[in-house]
Design goal:
Elements: H1 3-31, H2 36-46, E1 52-53, H3 55-63, E2 68-72, H4 76-81, E3 88-89, H5 93-102, E4 109-113, H6 118-129, E5 135-138, H7 141-147, E6 152-153, E7 159-160
Parallel strand pairs: 1-5, 2-3, 2-4, 4-5
Antiparallel strand pairs: 6-7
Length: 183
């Protein structure tokens, strides 16, 4: 047997051993990464102190008279591809607080989103911990928003219907037609 084939077989064996050692809990963890609803539920469970708004609730807030700060917590390259109209690319508590220091009327609600919601739930939680009780997370984040066919804009403010698919471990959560790279 060739050395490369031996390495492949050894790698598969080790993967099987790891999966078996994880038992049912490991299978649940792997399963929670397979669908956006399962991932969203896992994020809600991991961040119980954060209110997780459904996309239709955010849309209602956006149409209302409420003062809203919509925060896109994704990296700038993902934000440039598309975003929810009106969102600012603020990736940290300090960036949000710096922005808030510049506005005359503070927002009544802060809604944070990322790709699937893990990063944004953490940011919303951190914002709450420093006194911003109005911070919320968008459940399913921009992937859910896009998968539901809700409006997005590109860096020029033009309507688009695609999103940066993020990393290879989450791109499957975004419908193929919604992926910016067409995968």
């Amino acid at each position: 047997m060739r050395p490369k084939a031996i390495l492949v077989v050894l790698g598969l064996f080790l993967l099987a051993v790891v999966l078996l050692s994880l038992g049912p809990a490991g299978y649940e963890k792997v399963g929670s990464m397979q669908s956006l609803p399962a991932r969203t539920a896992a994020i809600r469970k991991a961040h119980p102190g954060v209110e997780h708004l459904a996309p239709d609730t955010l849309e209602w807030i956006m149409r209302s008279e409420a003062r809203l700060l919509l925060v896109d917590a994704r990296p700038p390259d993902e934000y440039e591809v598309s975003r929810i109209d009106g969102a600012l690319n603020l990736e940290s508590v300090s960036a949000v607080e710096n922005h808030l220091a510049e506005v005359e009327d503070p927002p009544e609600v802060i809604v944070v989103y990322g790709s699937v919601g893990k990063r944004s739930a953490k940011l919303a939680e951190r914002l709450q911990s420093v006194g911003h009780a109005e911070a919320r997370n968008l459940a399913g984040s921009i992937f859910q928003w896009a998968n539901e066919g809700r409006g997005l804009v590109d860096s020029a403010g033009e309507p688009v219907d695609v999103v940066h698919p993020g990393g290879r471990f989450q791109s499957h959560l975004l419908e193929p037609a919604r992926r910016a790279n067409g995968d």
